[in-house]
Amino acid sequence: MERLPDCVLLNTIAVAGRHNNNSTTASSRTRNGKTIEVSFSLEHPPHPSTLLVHSSDMNLTVPPNIVYTVDDLLLLSVNMGSGPYSLSPDDCDFFVYRAHPTRPSLHLLRRPHPYFNDVDVGLLPRLDGQYTIAALLPTTTSKQYELHLFDSDSEIRGWSRRTLTVEAPQREFPVKIPIDSIRLHHHLTSNVITIGGKGGTMGWVDLWRGILLCDVLDPKPFLRGLPLPLPLKELSYNNGNGFPFGPGGQRRGISFIRDVDKGKCYLKLVHLEMSDVRLPHFDDETMAFSFRVHNWALTTWSNTRMTDSYEDWHQEYMIEASDMRIDDPAISQMLETSGLLMHTQPQDDGAAGEQLAFHNLPVSQPSLCINGEDVVYLLARKKYRHQEAWIVAVDIKKMAKCKLWSSLVIKDSLIQLSSIALVQFPSI
I want to staple 135 with a disulfide (CB 3.0 to 4.6 A). Which of 121, 159, 166, 240 is the partner? Predict the structure, then answer.
């Protein structure tokens, strides 16, 4: 039997389907008592793996969604309504899948109330083999939140709820926030990270602003702020008026790294800076704005102390795409034949399309390798919002040292990547 990969890259949108006699398959029951099976079609990174979900009870017009992953745990939302307009959270069943080389498991959760957005919830593996699910929801009162908890070993009790305040807010910004960027004064959760430890620390991340940390296993939990490096270049846009920051996941990614080899744990942040210009027309194929990319760059920071100080963050690497070298002829050929670097298609009259360089490639959604390697995964598209997405893996450490490097770009027309999740497969 082929050895399972240590971890996999996943599209966060699952696929309706099943695997027969697959060692990754686990089953459970839906709210209506029907069988549901979850399994993986596995590939070694940077090839994307696919999560398959099969049940006669599921809504085939709304694909299942991977809400959160940490270590070997995966939180999955499956729509049980009927038709494409059954989009209420009440239509969804939530399951926790645990990866295992021989005994994977799938468990139906008691439905939460009120329902939460996917970006507000995370999973905490516990030392006793159980897990806690935590969701942090804003209230109408400034700096006040509701913490919703579900413990896998207290299922009869169900979900608990308590009100928390930000007792230790993050420090004031070291620079003045311009008028077009005033949204940075308010925390808007982009995603959740799991840190762990005795108190069960979890972090609700605003990728442009900072992190709200909470020890969710503490009898009296409270919130404390941890700042993130400010996007100083974006704050200088528009003649100093700033930038109207949107969803942070398009340009930034964050992970908590447990580096066993080096014996340390730390936060790691990656920032994608795009040098592009919006063109004055819509694209007929994507029905979205057209952009011309001049260059793009990746910057990474690390933080081992995790206090309220900006000085805890240390820049590790910064590399521009125009400085990247691809030395593998096969990779260069793949890029050329993929159409990724073709800005305009060949014309009927025989005129050639416009050929772009690698640094002109539209990329987004940087994700960090969770095993401590200095690899950043990016989603690449031919055009902004194009339906086909490829994965680009950049070894930023080797690039920064100007050593020879080969990238790998993967396309699968059956998999429309929306964003990337990572799952670990423990060894026996």
Answer: 121
Closest C-alpha to 393, from 372, 361, 368: 368
| Average of per-residue pLDDT values in the chain | 86
**Which is nearest to 371 in space by CA: 276, 294, 299, 265?**
265
13 occurs within a structural domain: yes
Greatest mean pLDDT among 17-21, 93-97, 109-113: 93-97
Residue 279 within a domain: no
Number of compact structural domains in the chain: 1
Q: Give the pLDDT score at 254.
A: 96
Domain that holds residue 8: 1-110
d(CA 351, CA 16): 42
Token pair of 65, please? 């969604």
- Give the rounded distance of the alpha carbon of 185 from its chain centre: 23
Give residue 111's pLDDT.
86
| For residue 114, cis peptide bond before it (omega within 30 degrees of 0) | yes
- d(CA 380, CA 311) in angstroms, rounded, equals 33
The answer to whether residues 97 and 76 touch, using CB atoms and an 8 Å cutoff, is yes
User: By the 8 A CB rule, do 333 and 354 touch?
Assistant: no
Cα gap 349→51, rounded to integer Å: 44
* Tokens found for residue 406: 């080969």
Amino acid type, 96: V
Q: In this structure, how many other beta carbons lie within 10 angstroms of the beta carbon of residue 332?
A: 14
Identify the CA nearest to 85 among candidates 118, 58, 61.
Answer: 61
Q: How far, in Å, CA of 279 to CA of 167, rounded? A: 46
Residue 356 has pLDDT above 70, yes or no: yes
167: region left, alpha or beta (phi > 0 left; psi from -120 to 50 alpha): alpha
Give me the mean pLDDT over the 278-301 stretch. Answer: 88
- In angstroms, rounded to a whole number, what is the distance separating the alpha carbons of residues 347 and 345? 6
| 406 falls within a domain | no
User: What was the pLDDT predicted at 353?
Assistant: 55
* Within a domain: 105: yes
Strand partners, 78: 93
Look at residue 404 and tell me whether its pLDDT is greater than 50. no
Average pLDDT (236-257) is: 93
Which tens digits make up the pLDDT trace of 161-185? 999 999 999 899 999 999 999 999 9
